[in-house]
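Session log. Operator J.P. requested a structure for one protein chain; no other inputs attached. Running the standard single-chain path with token output.
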Amino acid sequence: MSRGALIIVDVQNDFCPGGSMAVSGGDEIIGPINTLLQSKVGPQRSLFHKVVATADWHPPHHVSFAEEHEGHNEYEVVEVGGLQQNLWPVHCMAGSEGAALHPELDQTYLDLILHKGTQVGLDSYSAFFENDGTTPTGLHGYLQEFEIKQVYIVGLALDWCVYFTALDARRLGYMTILMEDLSRPVDVPAGFAEQRLADLREKRVIIESSEAYYG
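Structure written below.
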């Protein structure tokens, strides 16, 4: 049986209710993720040989913060260094409470916490690459070290960091399974999340419910 890894994307306080970039229902996935971990990570490591949690970990004056771009507002898109840059509220400042993993997430099972978006001038959505598409986060090398062949992806937000993580996982040759029920989208404008899911299906990402893996 090929070796699998679970990637828990950005289940951080700032992306959950009460955070500066709260995803609606973002905290609702935490209990089911914990249940999945308890079911599938144990002495036999039956499904997940490695469990990785990612976290946005931005320095002050990060390029994604709208307040750093005079004359522009949150949720606009600008060009920075030849890359399209979405502008967001200040979020996930390194070391802040907002950047911490949600306290209800069971970290007992985590093998690695991967910080991304750590450079002032370069944003990062995917768990595998910064937004220039070439600068690696180190995750691919880590998974290759343990001969991981398939990845299961959950977390926040489905139509942003989860989406780009799944795209890159496929591009790197992993069998990629997105557990849709253990993710939540921003879905702005309405229907955007469904477009993202359709694109993932075209790229041969498997979209499933976590229910298939319990027991």
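Operator note: The chain has a mean pLDDT of 95.
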